[in-house]
């Protein structure tokens, strides 16, 4: 069999490792075969290709090095960084929020992760590689005119020497330039070289190829140049309407904290691509980030109407019903996910909670047993915490205490478990232990209002009014519309005024 035909067949079958080996054999015989060279580039790219639209996560570098500040205090419903200002949205009282200030979502996706890089060095580390901890702009390259000799690769070394390649020679050849750009961007992860090639290729095609403009926008977006990325994406949309371009332009506005502009872009995309699932999903996510759950669930229902197997939409609708005191409805959606083949600890944990609040007690413990058997190291603490909540609900405080301590042993920074342990210790009359648990929960999770309120109520009961007054103000900072905290604050202010 001809080796070139075999390599093409392996590539189509997505057997990329075998394809690379076959191409390497061919290149050993003829190092200047451009067709095999391109095929090997594409195979290597596919091995490491990720959907960067669904894999991006704003790290500490983007958070601390953001110069695109629009307004210090945004108007209600116009900022993703302060979603608590949304009018008519859910409150922290019945739907918990993450550390980033966003309501808990039905699925884990970009923007909903609470974990962030611990140090600035980790945030600046080049993604998907451990070769260097420097940002991409600090890399240097030699400008050497090499021509076709750049196609030669050293045995045991890199396939393409980026520091030796003359990008100008390839920019004028679209059949070579596009695979080379994707290889540099996804395999070598060199934004600087990819941007240089995209600029040269855009000039070579006289700014008439919309694809290169989209790639320029991707590079600018990766480098944090949002306004330049916006300009490139809008220029590409004027030449050709593409779903990816609409999504990337919307992500630019999200990074600029302009969710209303992102919504306008996605709705414009729906005019060209009606009922497009990805655009509807993006709109639903933005509304969820704005804490407008009514509109978010509306678009998720449209998604389910078009695609009845969309896991994200089903999970988010189920969570919305659970936190609006409709556990029976939520149970229907989670059972649908189970019927679709999802079998993980998170799903059984949610099924157990829905069964408990729907008073189907015979299924509750079996669901949590399945959850514990499938749980990973990061999920064990949450599952034991939820079992502790169920034990509190049935009145078994001893079992509840054991479950909460197991949650803390699995995750020593689980703040809700510390808070609930404080409540149990207070019921037993152990005031000092309860206060210690409340203080530990507040120090671990300053965004939670429950530890502050419990600590303030305990201090008020013990007669320590000054400490109660200080702590209750922190509770209102975390959750300004909490009525019991407001009432306790007014009572303390009246007492001080009377004195």
Give the structure's gist in a few sentences.
With 499 residues, the protein is an all-alpha fold. The chain contains 26 helices and no strands. Among the domains are: 166-235, Serine Threonine Protein Phosphatase 5, Tetratricopeptide repeat (Alpha Horseshoe); 376-498, Alpha Horseshoe (Serine Threonine Protein Phosphatase 5, Tetratricopeptide repeat), CATH 1.25.40.
Keywords:
single chain; 499 residues; mainly alpha; Serine Threonine Protein Phosphatase 5, Tetratricopeptide repeat; 64% helix; 0% strand; TPR_rpt; Tetratricopeptide repeat protein 8; TPR repeat; TPR-like_helical_dom_sf; BBS8
Characterize the structure shown.
The chain is mainly alpha-helical and 499 residues long. Among the domains are: 70 residues, Serine Threonine Protein Phosphatase 5, Tetratricopeptide repeat, CATH 1.25.40; 123 residues, Alpha Horseshoe (Serine Threonine Protein Phosphatase 5, Tetratricopeptide repeat), CATH 1.25.40. The chain contains 26 helices and no strands. It starts with a helix and ends with a helix. About 8% of the residues have low confidence.
């Amino acid at each position: 069999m001809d080796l070139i035909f075999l390599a093409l067949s392996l590539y189509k079958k997505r057997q990329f490792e075998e394809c690379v080996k076959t191409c390497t054999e061919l290149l050993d015989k003829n190092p200047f075969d451009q067709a095999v060279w391109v095929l090997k580039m594409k195979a290597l790219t596919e091995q490491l290709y990720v959907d960067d639209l669904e894999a991006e996560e704003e790290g500490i570098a983007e958070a601390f090095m953001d110069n695109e500040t629009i307004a210090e205090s945004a108007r209600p419903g116009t900022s993703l960084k302060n979603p608590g200002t949304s009018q008519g949205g859910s409150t922290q009282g019945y739907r918990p929020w993450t550390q980033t200030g966003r309501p808990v979502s039905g699925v884990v996706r970009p923007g909903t992760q609470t974990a962030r890089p611990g140090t600035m060095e980790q945030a600046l580390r080049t993604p998907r590689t451990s070769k260097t901890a420097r940002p991409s702009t600090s890399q240097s390259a030699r400008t050497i005119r090499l021509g076709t000799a750049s196609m030669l690769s050293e045995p045991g070394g890199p396939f393409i020497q980026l520091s030796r390649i003359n990008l100008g020679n390839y920019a004028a050849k679209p059949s070579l330039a596009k695979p080379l750009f994707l290889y540099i961007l996804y395999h070598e992860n060199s934004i600087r070289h990819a941007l240089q090639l995209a600029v040269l290729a855009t000039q070579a095609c006289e700014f008439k190829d919309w694809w290169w403009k989209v790639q320029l926008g991707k590079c600018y977006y990766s480098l944090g140049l949002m306004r330049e990325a916006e300009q490139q994406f809008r220029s590409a949309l004027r030449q050709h309407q593409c779903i990816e371009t609409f999504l990337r332009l919307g992500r630019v506005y999200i990074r600029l904290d302009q969710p209303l502009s992102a919504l306008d872009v996605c709705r414009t995309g729906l005019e060209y691509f009606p009922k497009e699932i990805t655009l509807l999903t993006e709109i639903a996510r933005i509304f969820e980030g704005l804490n407008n759950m009514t509109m978010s669930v509306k678009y998720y229902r449209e998604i389910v109407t078009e695609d009845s197997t969309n896991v994200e939409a089903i999970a988010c609708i189920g969570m919305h019903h659970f936190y609006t005191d409709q556990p029976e409805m939520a149970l229907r959606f989670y059972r649908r996910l189970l019927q679709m083949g999802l079998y993980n600890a998170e799903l059984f944990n949610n099924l157990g909670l829905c069964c408990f609040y729907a008073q189907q007690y015979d299924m509750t413990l079996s669901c949590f047993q399945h959850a514990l058997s499938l749980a990973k190291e990061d999920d064990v603490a949450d599952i034991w915490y939820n079992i502790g909540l169920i034990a509190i609900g049935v009145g078994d405080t001893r079992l509840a205490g054991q479950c909460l301590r197991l949650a803390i042993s699995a995750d020593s920074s689980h703040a809700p478990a510390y808070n609930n342990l404080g409540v149990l210790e207070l019921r037993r009359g152990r005031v000092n232990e309860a206060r210690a648990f409340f203080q530990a929960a507040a120090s671990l999770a300053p965004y939670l209002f429950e530890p502050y309120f419990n600590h303030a109520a305990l201090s008020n009961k013990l007669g320590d009014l000054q400490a109660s007054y200080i702590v209750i103000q922190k509770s209102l900072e975390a959750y300004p519309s909490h009525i019991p905290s407001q009432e306790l604050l007014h009572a303390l202010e009246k007492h001080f005024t009377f004195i």
